[in-house]
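Open question from group meeting: does this chain pack into something compact, or does most of it stay loose? Before anyone orders reagents, we agreed to write out a predicted structure and look at it together. Recording both the input and the output here so the notebook holds the full record.
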Amino acid sequence: MRWVLSFLFVVAASFTLTSSAQAAAAPAAPAIGSRVVGVFDRTTIVLAYYRSPLWEAILADRRFELKTVKAANDSTRASELEKYGAESQDWAMNQLAGKAPIDNILAVLQPEFKELTTRLKLAGVADSAIADPKSPSIDVTPLLLDWLKATAETRKMAAEMHSKAGN
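Structure tokens returned:
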């Protein structure tokens, strides 16, 4: 069963690589009156977030601050920033492995969750691992990848992660 899901994910991911116009298309509309939930794949979103322009901007700010405090001989703040770099890398790896919560990523995604909920008339958006499997759902992972400006390489990496996990 897992290999079937992995295969379906790879097929679905390949569709997101076609054209940006197709990638921006919304999933099929839910049935009238149903409480459809938008679901996303956690590992894919974690990977995409840490490879996104949003995260790169955060790191660029930290690198600039580190350079500035080193030039000012502020060794205390420089140590704090260096520690932040190492800790954030460990945290990201633990999030990717499913060993740490992704609250920081969910907070960043809140505006897009609200937009998708309104546009697609969803009951909400949830991690597919914790969503009720009996409830009707729509996979919004490709739309979140678009919002995070995931590259073709990031999408390919996510698909490869899932194919390896399914073996």
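Observations to bring back to the group:
Strands lie at 37-40, 124-127, 137-139.
The chain has eight helices and three strands.
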